[in-house]
Every structure is written in C-alpha cells, then in structure tokens.
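task queued by scheduler; priority normal; single chain, no ligands, no partner chains; default sampling; output format set to structure tokens
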Amino acid sequence: MRSFLKLLVLAAIVGAGIGLWVTAPNRVDAARFDGLTGDAARGETVFTAAGCASCHHAKGSEDKLLLTGGMEFVSDFGTFYAPNISPHPEAGIGGWSFEDFANAVTRGVSPEGQHYYPAFPYTAYTKMQDQDLSDLWAYMQTLDPSDVASKPHDVGFPFNIRRSVGGWKFLFMSDDYVIEAADNERGRYLVETLAHCAECHTPRNPLGALDKARWMGGAPNPSGSGTIPALTPDKLDWSAADVAYYLESGFTPSFDAVGGHMAEVVENFAALPAEDREAVAAYIKALPPLDE
C-alpha cells in the first residue's frame, strides 16, 4: 500500500510538471527582430488590413483611431471586451516595448506573462511577418492616447483560470497555413493572417477553436442573431470580380448593402490597394467546397 501511495504521489508530481510545461507562456525570440526598423507609413496599411480599429476604437466616437476599446464579444465562455491599445502609458500600451507587443500580437502573452484569451485573434496574427509587425508598432505610436481604463472581461470559473489558456494553445494554436498558397501568397496572407477572416466565417468546435475541416464554411453569429455566411464555392456563387467589388463598395451582386460588423471590414478593405482586394477574391474563389 505504501509503495502504491509513493507511485501515486510521484505520478501526481510528474503530471503537475507536465501540466506546467504545457500551459507555460510561449514567448518570441527577441533576437529575430534585430536590425528591423519600423516604417509608420507602411504600418498604417498593416493596421488597416488587420482591422485593429474595427474592434478597439472608442465606442460611440467618430474618431476610429482613438483606440480606447470597449467593444464586447459575447461567447459561450463569457463576454470579452476589447482593451485600450492606445499609446497611453498607463491605460494603454504606451509603456510596452516592441518585444512586449510582439509577444501579445503573435503569441497571445501579456507583458506580465499571462495568457490572453483567444477572443484576441493572435492565433491568426502568429503568422504575421516580422517587418509588418515592426511597421505596425511604429504606426501605433503615432496615434492619440486615451486614458480610459480597459473594461475587465466577464468570464466565470473555470474559464477565468488564465493558465488553462496555455493548454488550449497547446492543442489548437499553430503557425501553419490552412490552404495552399498556389501563386497567391498575398491573398492567403491577408485572409488567414492580417484580416483573420476565418474568425467569423469558420465554425468552432466545443472548445472554441476553429474547425479547420470546415474552413470558411459559415458559422453562427456570435451576437446570437443569424449566421455568418459560408465563403466556399459550393455556397457562394459570386465571381472573383463580385467579391472584389463587394470589398470595395459594400454592395452585393444583387445590390444589397453590407451591414453589421462586416461594414467595418469593408471600410478597411476599401482603403487597401485594388490588388489586395483582388488577391483576397482569388483566395476565396480557390477555396475547396465543403462537400468534397
């Protein structure tokens, strides 16, 4: 009996050690950014493509570049609120280093070493190119600060245990692309990384991770009203020109106008070069049908 108890204790210690290793924050290697210089002008394009203002701008304000945060994201795990990411030194991220920023955006890890919840789409941003990340950081330093404090998330037990997010990342976070690029790397980069389109257009498994087997297959609207449409060719019969025009104008081939949060997405894409919208359209038209 005593031998059995010793083995049980040893197994518990080993199991706890493995658990701590699996759930530990995974930070970037800062040396990979040596020699990089951010360009704020290029960073503005990255900022727009990534939709940063769409979620983080001050609610009710016409200033889309005042990144006070506050937008709510309702989920089965609780309600998450976009934080203040303005360059304010206390209320925002003005006191961060570039390394802090890189860890947050591409690893989902705070400067204090806590895991961010994946309502923040770092699972897509993890593939962001180093130069784009540096340019984005440079641009965000030029924006106006806001002293409004971030609203705390409304998440109950057990989802409020931040360390458990590390286990979720271990299971579901990957820097691999889902679709082969063929000759359209820009389109794939925009859709799968910067614009993180799958966050809304792909269904999720019971643990909240994207169901990559049904990539871009449509999903319930997190607001609880309706669904986010599928973009696969068996569901969307628009031409590439139709898709590109929609991203520029907000009008569908049947002359319906964009609505909801997608209006913000169209506003962002309309500000990008036409070549980017065409690359996204080409990516969408190359998606495999779900019924294969």
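post-processing summary
- The longest strand covers residues 72-75.
- Residues 185-285 form one domain.
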